[in-house]
């Protein structure tokens, strides 16, 4: 196992362990955990050797912070709408954004769309989907990786 993969594994296990200590709510915990893992995966795409390790750590930290902030501000129903929009965008036969909006709060809405062509990564066919959230007038964004499994694009 390479140093980068070991570091990514340690980050993933640490994030899971630390998420059990989180007391601010499931949405923030889930957002931070998923954001951290996505950030680590994104960081692993850059550099080599020690440089890649640094990119993985920085990506994980940035993703955890961004994911935690988004998760904290979306209620469960809105988070599910946002996740569904990202899944629909990944599986759409035509390019373009998939929009969603909150049923409770007019100032909470967003969209998702693929931002990279599908390519083989570590033996899987994968692509990135960007989700943009508008939360009380503030724009936030995150990118998630989706891979083809059993004929459907699923979040990796």
UniProtKB/TrEMBL annotation:
Stored InterPro entries: Gly_zipper_2TM_dom
Signal peptide positions on this chain: 1-19
Species for this entry: Thalassobaculum fulvum
Sorted UniProt keywords: Lipoprotein, Signal
Chief location of this protein within or outside the cell: membrane
Family membership: Belongs to the rickettsiale 17 kDa surface antigen family.
Pfam families per record: Rick_17kDa_Anti
Descriptive protein name: 17 kDa surface antigen
């Amino acid at each position: 196992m390479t140093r980068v993969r070991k570091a990514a594994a340690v980050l993933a296990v640490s994030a899971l362990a630390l998420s059990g200590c989180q007391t601010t709510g499931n949405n923030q915990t889930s957002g931070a955990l998923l954001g951290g893992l996505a950030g680590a995966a994104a960081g692993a795409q850059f550099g080599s050797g020690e440089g890649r390790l640094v990119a993985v750590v920085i990506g994980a930290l940035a993703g955890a912070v961004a994911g935690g902030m988004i998760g904290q501000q979306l209620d469960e129903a809105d988070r599910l709408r946002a996740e569904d929009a990202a899944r629909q965008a990944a599986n759409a036969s035509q390019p373009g954004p998939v929009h969603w909006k909150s049923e409770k709060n007019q100032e909470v809405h967003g969209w998702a769309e693929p931002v990279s062509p599908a390519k083989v990564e570590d033996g899987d066919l994968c692509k990135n989907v960007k989700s943009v959230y508008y939360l009380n007038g503030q724009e936030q964004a995150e990118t998630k990786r989706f891979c083809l499994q059993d004929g459907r694009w699923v979040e990796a």
